[in-house]
Amino acid sequence: MDIFLQLLVSGVATGGVYALIALGFVLIYKATHIINFATGEFMMIGAYLCYTFLALSGIPIIPTFILVMLCAAVLGFLVERTILRHMLGQPVISIIMVTIGLSSILVGLTEIIWSSQFESFPPLFPRAPLDLGFVLVRSTLAYGFAISMAAVAVFALIFKYAKAGVAMRATAGDQMAAFSMGINVKTMFTFAWALGAIAAALGGVIVGNIGGISPVLGAVGLKIFPVVILGGLDSIGGAVVGGFIIGVLENLAGGYLDPHFGGGVKEVAPFVIMVLILLVKPHGLFGKEDIERL
Amino acid sequence: MNEPILKVNNIEVVYHHVVLVLKGMSLMVPEGAIVALLGSNGAGKTTTLKAISGLLPLEDGEITDGGVEFQGRSLKGLAPQQIVRAGLFQVLEGRRVFEDLTVEENLSCGAYTRHDRAGIKADLDKCFHYFPPLKKRFKNLAGYLSGGEQQMLAISRGLLARPRLMLLDEPSLGLAPLLVEEIFGIIAEINRQEGTTILLVEQNAQMALSVSSYGYIMESGRVVMDGPTERLLADKDVQEFYLGLGTGGGRRSYREVKHYKRRKRWLS
Fold first, then answer.
1. Which CATH architecture has domain B4-87+163-237?
2. For chain B (length 268 residues), average pLDDT per consecutive 10?
3. Residue A108 is part of which domain span?
4. What contacts B107, CB < 8 A, 6 or more positions away?
5. Out of B19, B45, B74, B260, which could bridge B201 as a Cys pair, Cβ 3.0 to 4.6 Å?
C-alpha cells in the first residue's frame, strides 16, 4: 500500500509537469492549428537558459524565471515571424516538416552554444523532501508541480477571460470571421507562439531541475504526445487531465510491471494508453467535436 | 441625396490571378441610407462586399483596377482590422458566429476594436433591445443557437463595433419568412435610430427593396441597372426577373426570355 501511495503521489506530481508542457502544444494548436514538433526543443532551450542565468551568471532565482519566460516569448515570436508566417496556407505535412526541421536546428544550436555535455542543475529549491504525512515527495518534483499548476491556471485564465484570449479562441474557430471583427489574426498567431514557448520553456526548467540537462532533454517532449492526444489537442482542461492520467499510469506501470518485464514498461505505457484511447475516442477525451446543426 | 460615405469606382477583381469576377463595378452609398445590392447567384455581390472590407486577399483575390473610397479616403492597401477601425464593418454571409464561444464572448469580439467600456455596455443594452432573445442566451454557446438567433448575434456583433457603414451579406439566408420580416424590420430600425448607413446584399429582392431607398442590380460582375427603389419596383424587367411578378402569369415562350437577354445587353 505504501508503495502504491508513493507511486500515485509522484505520478500526480509528474502529471502536473506534463500538463504544463502539454499546454505548450495546446496553446499553439488552439490558435493556429499547427502541431509544434519542436516543443521538446523549446523545453530544452528554456532549461539551458535557466542554467546559464542561474549557474553561470549568478542571477537570483526569481529574476531568472522572468528572464527565461521573456527569452522564451522572444523565441516563439521569432519562430512565428520568420518561419511559420510564411507557411500560412501551406499543406499540413509541410508545416509539420518545418517544425521537425526546426527541432533539429535548435538541438544543433544548443550544442554549438553550450556543448553537448550532460550538466546538472544547481539546486533551485530547498532540498528537504516534502513530507505529506503518508509519503515523502522529492522537493524538485513537489516544487515543480506547484509551479506547473500555477502556470497552467494563469494560462487558462488568460484564454478564458482576457480580451486577447477570447480573440485567440475566435481566431481558432473561424479565421475569416475573426478578420471581419477587426481582430488582427496574424498578431494572434504570434501571441499564441509566444505563450506556447513560455509554457514549454517553464516545463523544461522543471524537467531539467529534476533530471539534469543535455541537448536530448527535448525527447521528453515526445512523451507529451500521449498527453495532448489523450486530452484533445485543443483543450486546456484536457491537457491537465491527460497529464495526470499519463503521469499516474506511467508511474504505476513502472513500479509494478517493470520488475517483471526487465524494465521499459514505464516508457511504453503512455503510448499504449494513447493508442487504446484513440481507438475509442478519436477526438481525445476532451477534444472538440464540431457542433453539427441540422 | 446626402454626401456619399462609400464610393466604389469601377473596380476589377481577379481571383487566383486568373478568374475575373468583377468587371468594372461601381456603386455609391449616401450617408445614412440603406442601399440594396441585388442580383442572382454568382453575380459578384459578395465579392463586391469583400473588396470593400479588405477580406479579398484571404481568398486569394485582389482588386486589379479601380478603387474604393470610404469617407473620402481610399481604402487601398489597408488591412481588414484597419478598415474596421475606420468604421466599416461587414456582417458575413451565413452568420459565421464563433460556435465554441458563448454569446457574450461573440459579442465582445464584435467590440474588439473598441476600448470605451461605458460605450460598449450601452451598445450591448441596445443589442438586447433590438434582439431580446440574445439576453436569454447570453451565457450559451453560440453553436447551439437557432439560425435566427445566430443571425441576430451576427448583426449584434456588427452593432457593437459601432460602424459608420455596415455591409450586410444576405441576412435572410436560411431563415423562415416570418423571421426574415422581423430581421429586416430591425435593420430598418437600426438605420433610423443609430444612423448607421447600410449596404445590403440580398437575393430576396422584395424584402431588400422594401427597406432600402436606392438599389443596384448586378449581373455577371457589373451593375446592369440602378435607381431609386420606387423606380426599380416599377420596372417591368425587375418585376419579372427579381420580384417574380410575371405579366399575367401565363406560360411564356423561351424566345421572349432571350429577347430580354438581348435587351439586357443594351441596358448595361
1. 3-Layer(aba) Sandwich (3.40)
2. 86 94 94 93 92 92 94 93 96 94 96 94 95 95 94 96 96 91 94 95 91 94 92 85 65 56 48
3. 17-218
4. B124, B127, B134, B153, B156, B157, B160
5. B45
